Amino acid sequence: MERGAGQTDGQRNGALKITMGERLPLALRMRRLVRELAKFGTVGAFGVLVNVATFNLCLHVFGLATVRSGVIATAVAVATNYLGNRYWTYLHTAKTRVRREASLFLLFSGVGLVIENGVLALSHYGLGFTSPLADNIAKYGVGLGLGTAFRFWSYRTWVFRGRRSAGDVGEADDFPAEEQRKHRRVLL
Predict the structure, then answer these.
(1) Residues 6+ apart with CB under 8 A from 188
(2) Fewest Cβ atoms closer than 10 Å to its Cβ: which of 9, 129, 150, 184?
(3) What are the counts of helices (DSSP H) followed by strands (DSSP E) for the chain?
(4) Which tens digits make up the pLDDT trace of 47-91?
């Protein structure tokens, strides 16, 4: 049997032929998920810096109340994270429904804001841990972790949904940016 016989052109050059309704191999899906998590984490890390700086600026410089400072800081970080996720993490998703996407992003970010600052309010007002260190631990050590897990799930599930596309999908998703726009993200 001739080398490569019985394979499509896409299979011979390292690409997989995926049709509507089919799933990618687990290893490829995991690689994509790890790449997506890394980008989401990088955007989120920058958002945390914005959040921490804004929170402490509002609290200690402007003298605003603890939870009010937390809500303002989270709102500023949400705006920063939307830009990072839209134009980097999920660059390859369709941009035809931006109003819907932005609305869902704000909705799920609002839920994340409630989770994050709910932990802060519980710690500060409910449990009486009122020191600046306790406020930062409650907000960033616990609340942000829970809020981030929720946001990652909701953004990838509802906001930046890719459409499964027919055709060749590269094995390691290492397409140039132009090609990535042609091939929509395949959901797990």
Answers:
(1) 29, 33
(2) 9
(3) 7, 2
(4) 999 999 999 999 999 999 999 999 999 999 999 999 998 889 888
3 state DSSP class of 16: strand
Question: Partners of 16 in the beta sheet?
Answer: 169
Distant-in-sequence, close-in-space partners of 4: CB < 8 Å, separation ≥ 6: 12
Q: Report how far residue 105's alpha carbon sits from residue 100's, in angstroms, rounded to the nearest whole number.
A: 8
How many beta carbons lie within 10 A of that of residue 71, not counting itself?
Answer: 20
Pairing, β 167-170 against β 15-18: antiparallel
List CB contacts of 85: < 8 A, sequence separation 6 or more.
40, 43, 105, 155, 160
Distance between CA 42 and CA 70 in Å, rounded? 21
Yes or no: say if 22 and 165 are a contact pair by the CB < 8 Å rule.
Answer: no
What digits encode the pLDDT tens for the residues 84-111? 988 898 888 877 788 888 899 999 999 9
Structure tokens at 21: 């309704």
Q: How far apart are CA 61 and CA 80, in angstroms?
A: 22
Q: What is the pTM of this model?
A: 0.65
Q: What is the DSSP string of 91-138?
A: TTS--TTHHHHHHHHHHHHHHHHHHHHHHHHIIIIIS---SHHHHHII
